[in-house]
Amino acid sequence: xxxxxxxxxxxxxxxxxxxxxxxxxxxxxxxxxxxxxxxxxxxxxxxxxxxxxxxxxxxxxxxxxxxxxxxxxxxxxxxxxxxxxxxxxxxxxxxxxxxxxxxxxxxxxxxxxxxxxxxxxxxxxxxxxxxxxxxxxxxxxxxxxxxxxxxxxxxxxxxxxxxxxxxxxxxxxxxxxxxxxxxxxxxxxxxxxxxxxxxxxxxxxxxxxxxxxxxxxxxxxxxxxxxxxxxxxxxxxxxxxxxxxxxxxxxxxxxxxxxxxxxxxxxxxxxxxxxxxxxxxxxxxxxxxxxxxxxxxxxxxxxxxxxxxxxxxxxxxxxxxxxxxxxxxxxxxxxx
Length: 336
Known about the structure:
Elements: H1 2-29, H2 44-53, H3 60-84, H4 105-140, H5 145-159, H6 162-176, H7 193-230, H8 233-240, H9 245-268, H10 270-274, H11 277-283, H12 288-297, H13 301-329
Helix pairs in contact: 1-13, 4-5, 4-7, 4-9, 5-7, 6-7, 6-11, 7-9, 8-9, 9-13, 11-12, 12-13
């Protein structure tokens, strides 16, 4: 397992380099100009000076190498300095800067990350905890009332877009009943029980929208995988040997059924960090999804490049984690 993991990590290096080059090239070729939002009264020579100050007067390949150095060397060194208090070099290394705010891109991401993890991460966790028991019971009691209701809710939750579900919950629970706020207050600081309950109240609606969508998707995979394994020979053999039905269901069937489900869950984890763009826009959650939208609208290419590449790194990483979990869940899978 260790050899396989190390080999996959080494293989991921050229993969990520190719992905970074494609992302950088596509965004560089996009018809975006950081001076496009400036007043038309600004002379052309001033616009060229602004472009030169952003490094856009340099060749493409040189700018790409600078970005690689800033992302893979300068930013990690800066993080190590913050964590350890040690000084590496003279401290004047160049960092990836946002064109719009002239602030380090990593600092902007770290500033928005807690809001995204609070809402999107908690919703994904709730979705998994809800989906697995629903999928197991629906498969075990196939065609029962519980199965039919669960299947119907899963189909609706997965088919109906989140912007419709979010607006519907706002109309019902915020406008009519006035139970929960419709706008997420990102400036709220949790300092006592009163502010803690206020934080919980404003999280109910966005977390519910995303939990319903995630649970609907995962529950369908759990149910289908459970149905495939419930009629296998090893299940009949375990029952013939007198193994308790609970052990057959939860130990034998569920463990083998989770193998394809792990792929769905692992590949869905990067979406936590990318943020729920539509839901964050509806509830005004100032997270990474909203940051990406603002960066795209403002032609802030360094911020878009960094965010997109971080999402790609997370996808490659959790693909590896899913492959490793296969060997843990199924003893028949061996990589070494």
